[in-house]
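--- STAGE predict ---
source: upstream dedup step, 1 unique chain passed
mode: sequence only
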Amino acid sequence: MRHSYKGVTILELLIVISIILFLAGALFLGLSRMRERVRRDKTVALVEKIATSLESYRLKFRVYPPSDTSPTGNEAIVYHLTTAFRVKPDLAKGEVLATDDAGPFIVLSNEELKNGRIIDAYAQPLVYKRYLAEDHGKAAKSTVVSWYDPSHNTAAGAAMQVRQYVYTLYSFGSNRLDDNGDGDDITARK
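--- STAGE serialize ---
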């Protein structure tokens, strides 16, 4: 007499468990890659947003904001891009600045601004460095038309030589290590 048992064998159970684990692993890997892509896209968008604000600042003041002495220069661009202030030309430094009210050039969300620093999607501060442009080993200069400023005896429309600056703005990227704008760093340069 034969008995027929209804149920699942251990082999069948192991096969089902292995299929479920394989599908869960593939799903986890896909979600991990998607999360990384979202972080990178958010950081690229933030770097482009800051770069656009730096260009607006330069169009207004004819010079990029200075970088401060901190390793990232981040606090300087937070101040210069988010603060409304009134400035005068600083001809001694060869910089022509607007004489009317300016800024803020950008509004940052709580997610992007933490402890007075611009933070990327990897929870790292952006790095900003401004330096003099060089032309054959000398500081590059360009001719600009000044605004009227009676304190410096400059008439509106007078041509002036001003220093040219360039900048580097970057995020450390997914490895969270400073590759000086190379490697996996997300960069905007001007």
